[in-house]
Amino acid sequence: MKKIIFIIFTLVLLNGYFSLKAQTLKSDDQCYLCHEQLGGVADLFKKDIHFQKGISCAGCHGGNSKSDDMLEAMSKASGYLGVPKGDDISLRCANCHAKKEMMQKYGSHLPTNQLELLKASVHGKLSTTGKEKIVQCTTCHNAHGIVSVKSPASPVYPLNVPNTCGKCHSNAKFMQTYNPKIAVDQVAKYRTSVHGMLNAKGDPKPAECASCHGSHGIRAVADTKSQVYALNIPETCSTCHSDAQYMAGYKIPTDQFAKYTRSVHGKQLLEKHDISAPACNSCHGNHGATPPEVASVSKVCGTCHALNADLFSSSPHKQAFDKAKLPECETCHSNHEIMPATKAMLGVSKEAVCSKCHTETKSTKGYFVAQKMRNYVDSLDVSEVLALKLINEAEQKGMEISEAKFKMRDVHQAKLEARTMVHSFNEEKFKEVVVGKGLSVSKAAVTESQAAIADYFFRRYGLVLSILITSLLALTLYMYIKKIEEKQASKL
Amino acid sequence: MKKIVKSFYDYLDERLHLDDLVHFMGKKYVPIHSHSVWYYFGGVSLFFFIVQVSTGILLLFYYKAGPDLAFESIQYIMSKVQFGWLIRSIHGWAANLFILSAVIHMFSVYFEKAYRKPRELTWISGMLLLFLGMGFGFSGYLLPWNELSFFATKVGSDIAGAVPIIGEPIKILMRGGLDVTGATLSRLFGFHVALFPGIFTIVLGIHLILIQRQGISEPRRIAKLDQKEKKTMPFFPNFMLRDLLLWLVMLNLLAILAVFFPAELGHKADAFGSAPAGIKPEWYFLFMFQSLKYFPAHILFIEGEVLGILLFGAAFALWMIVPFWDRKSSRGERNKLINYLGMAAIMFIIVLTILGWIA
Amino acid sequence: MSDLDSNQNRRSFLKYLLSTSLVGFLASVLYPIVSYLNPPKQNEVEVSSVLAGKISDFEKDSGKIVRFGNKPVIVVRTEKGDFKALSAVCTHLDCTVQYKKELGLIWCACHNGKYDLSGKNVSGPPPRPLDPYTVTLQGENIFVSKKA
After folding, report:
1. ∠A391-A393-A398 over CA atoms, to 5°?
2. A275, A432, A475, B329: which has the highest count of C-beta atoms within 10 A?
3. Does A492 contact B at CB distance below 8 Å?
4. Residues of chain B neighbouring A484 (CB-CB closer than 8 A)
5. What confidence tens digit (pLDDT) does each residue in B73-126 have?
């Protein structure tokens, strides 16, 4: 309560100060003096930060503000422009806002690249009239009565941003004219999100539209430079969520981004630039960003990992997890720091996730199933290594072994399918994949490559034998020649 | 047993007068001297030719010409057909060894000036056989239709195409079109298994008849000797049995090479693929291929490559007609120039082959 | 034993040796040749166009995996009865795809990747469509060949 009184008091004081200043201005600004009598925009302008900094109407509208002769003051000769239309509006603003020295003159340290950013943004495209940009400065900032972004009265103050953007973006009829496919429910969804709810409660810190999309330089989602382009999303979210100081009051961790970058998803997206890999919004939603609830985790993961989710949901684990209020996929795979699934997760060893619940004394059925399942995978791995070694050896020996190599595709497939089938937590089904599909083929490949290696040695031994025989023939032939020549010599 | 052989021989003799032939063979003598060893290389070349004909026929049983099937049928021979790898590897190795022994045979004849009158025609027929052998090599190289052979054939026929006036028609004749395609494969297959073997057999027949008719040449210094000082051995059976002995040794060599260095297959040719690194022609074309690289792009108004090809053509032509311009040897005089030219040719071939090999 | 006798013995031994080794030699040359001529069990490979089977082997709305050189190819007979052939190697992680009748799609069992019958990846993780092959009908026979 004290706070509010203090704020009101300060506002009253400030108002007094500004009206004092306005008083001084009034005296020599003829535009204002006249238009004040007329009411309307001049009243608005009184609160305008520009007015308070001593900028006259003529600053935007042109003309001679010193002259009290209306005809002269608003004549073309004195540079009167009237109401700027279309792109001229933004150009008028840029007249000062794009010039550093001009801004400094009024003691402002605002950036000076807004119009440039706007031109490059999706809003800088030509509007349906084909004559001007879709959005001018005034579309968001208003024309008269512009106040600092930091003022709660500004339409671009964080608490007001959703409604300001929503003026167009929630208007289906209007948005239709630009992109018939675009959604118009962003603000509605936003209001359901954690960000949106806090924002509605008057907390300016949680993200609003501009926090993620940017302000002047908003780009389309598919634009690689956009802050919300798939590859850039984790970074964008992390600007707040990894800032421990900023997040201090919210009692949530700030290591999600760091964990995500180490995860299999993060590597796929950020290192391999695979934009089909999930970013923050894939699981949390974007406009309706919120953490998935315990029971819906498998549905969220299942949007991509459909088979695993289906198998899990029909497995005995579904009931057990729900009872124990364990989040489904997350319990074994964690959430932000999901590592590639290896066979180390399966079994009863310390690292195996099964052993979190199943031990030799507790939930023993699962303990023994896990042990068996791990054994199947291990024997497939051993057999695969042997098969590959033998195939390689046969190849090194120059034997044609492409058929066995072709068969090894099935082993690869069985291993991949096993990673899915493990989610049935059914020993029979798992065995069918690992042993029936994988191990049998791997063993066949071993047999084939062994036969090829045996053939290699058969060639060597055959060679030795045939050389021996041929050499024997050669030797006897040699002796025979000698014999004949002896005979010939003795005849002479 | 002996009786049966005897009666069979008598049966034939009665109708064909074999006695004359045996008598003739028995009368033939091979001179013995310090360079007698070179006499065997003709026989060794003949052996490799026989091996090529027999393994070639065997390969034909499974080989299928055509861009769709050539590579796969050879893969099939190498992996599925029993001893297919052996037959193909021997065919590949014997091809190389044939060229090698024929070249040795040629140089030995050259340095002994055995081409001199009256054996000019024997020399020319022998040179034709060597060229045909190279033709066999070139046409056979493409038949597996793998990457390496595809591009080597492309380059090889391009070089032939660079010859002025007749080059382009020859290239089109060789390729069966403007480019190396399936048509080239059919065509070179035809050359390899029908045209060349036919011509080769005729020329070889002439070559062998000439040798039998004229007897074996003596080097000039032996010919000068007194009849009594000359050492000889009968062609039949002594020399022939020795020949057979050497053939057995060569067969062993082929078997070893085939087992330890079997013929490779590589990747299937892809006309749209990029040329693999290090395309080289067969080693016996390498010295020509390499020396063409050293010619500058232009010499006066002709292209360097064209000039090189013309020079090689001229050199081969001169080499082929050496019996006609080496009058001195024919008169029984020494001709050192011939030896120097021969040494220079050998040095040139060896150096450029090595350069081409390491390039 | 006289000198002449031993000479005689040596000669007959030599002849014996010569004929035996000659027989052995002929055997060692003929054995590979005869085995070579003996046709192998497996039919000759006809690649670049592979015989996928007879039309009657394919029910409507079904698919079959055919080995094409070193790669599997899936041949699908659609509900309407025409044939399609596509590479059966899933573009995601190289599993072998199959025809899924209920969906009328080509489906990969590993990660639920789906392709339509033109090979276009329509759902799931596959990043690229399946490579198409050409189907030619010669009488009753269905041949699959590489797309030129």
Report:
1. 95
2. B329
3. no
4. 237-238, 241
5. 898 888 888 899 999 999 999 999 999 999 999 999 999 899 988 899 999 999
What is the pLDDT of chain A when averaged over all its residues? 87
Mean residue pLDDT of chain B comes to 89
Q: Does C7 touch chain A (CB under 8 A)?
A: no
Whether residue A411 is contained in a domain is answered as yes
**Chain C contact set for B248 (CB, 8 A):** 25
Residue A99 sits at φ, ψ, to 5 deg, of -115, 115
Residue in C with minimal Cα distance to B248: C25
Chain B residue with the nearest C-alpha to that of A459? B259
Using a CB–CB cutoff of 8 Å, tell me whether A417 touches chain C: yes
Instruction: Indicate the burial class of B349 (C-beta count within 10 angstroms; 0-12, 13-18, 19 or more).
Output: middle
Q: Copy the structure tokens of residue B191.
A: 């050359």
Interface test with B, best of A395, A481, A483, A487 (most B CBs within 10 A): A481
**Mean pLDDT across C80-102:** 86
In a domain, A429, yes or no: yes
What's the gap in Å between the CA of C14 and the closest CA on chain A? 7
Other C-beta atoms within 10 Å of C107: how many? 19
pLDDT, one tens digit per residue, over A339-376 is 988 889 999 888 899 988 898 888 888 899 999 999 99
CATH superfamily membership of B29-267: Cytochrome Bc1 Complex; Chain C (1.20.810.10)
- Domain count of the fold of chain A: 1
Nearest by CB to A459, which of B237, B242, B259?
Answer: B259
Region label for C76, one of left (φ > 0), alpha (ψ between -120 and 50) or beta (otherwise)? beta
pLDDT tens, residue by residue, A273-285: 988 889 999 999 8
Chain A residues 210-229 with CB within 8 Å of chain C? none
- Whether B81 contacts chain C with CB within 8 A: yes
**Residue percentage of chain A with pLDDT more than 90:** 42
Query: Is residue A300 assigned to a domain?
Result: no
Q: What is the pLDDT of residues A83-133, one digit of tens each?
A: 888 888 999 899 889 999 889 888 888 899 999 999 999 999 998 888 899
Contact between A463 and B244 using a beta-carbon 8 Å cutoff? no
Residue of C nearest to B84 (CA): C36
Report the first-to-last Cα separation within chain C, whole angstroms.
84
Per-residue model confidence (pLDDT) at position C101: 84
Q: Angle CA(C82)–CA(C84)–CA(C86) in degrees, nearest 5? A: 175
CB contact under 8 A, A467 and B248: no
Tell me the shortest Cα–Cα distance from A466 to chain B, in angstroms: 8
Query: Is B67 an 8 Å CB contact of chain C?
Result: yes
Q: What is the CATH number of the domain that holds A400?
A: 1.20.140
Structure-token pair, residue A237? 């979210």
The answer to whether A419 and A332 have CB atoms below 8 angstroms apart is: no
Beta bridge partners of B302: B299
Q: Which of B241, B248, B262 sits opposite A470 (nearest CB)?
A: B248
Our CA-based measurement puts residue C95 at a distance from the nearest CA of chain A, in whole angstroms, of 5
Per-residue confidence band for A2, with pLDDT thresholds at 50, 70 and 90:
low
Using CB atoms, which residue from A466, A473, A488 is nearest to B255?
A466
- pLDDT under 50: residue ranges of chain B: none
Spell out the domain ranges in chain B: 29-267
Structure tokens at A366: 């699962």
Buried b (16+ CB within 10 A) or exposed e, A80-114: beeebeebebbebbbebbbeeeebeeeebeeebeb
Q: Quote the domain boundaries for residue A393.
A: 364-491
Domain-embedded: residue A184: no
Give all strands (DSSP E) within chain B, no chain letters.
Answer: 29-32, 231-234, 298-299, 302-303
Q: What is d(CA B250, CA B256) in angstroms, rounded to the nearest whole number?
A: 10
If one compares B154 and C49, the residue with the highest pLDDT of the two is: B154
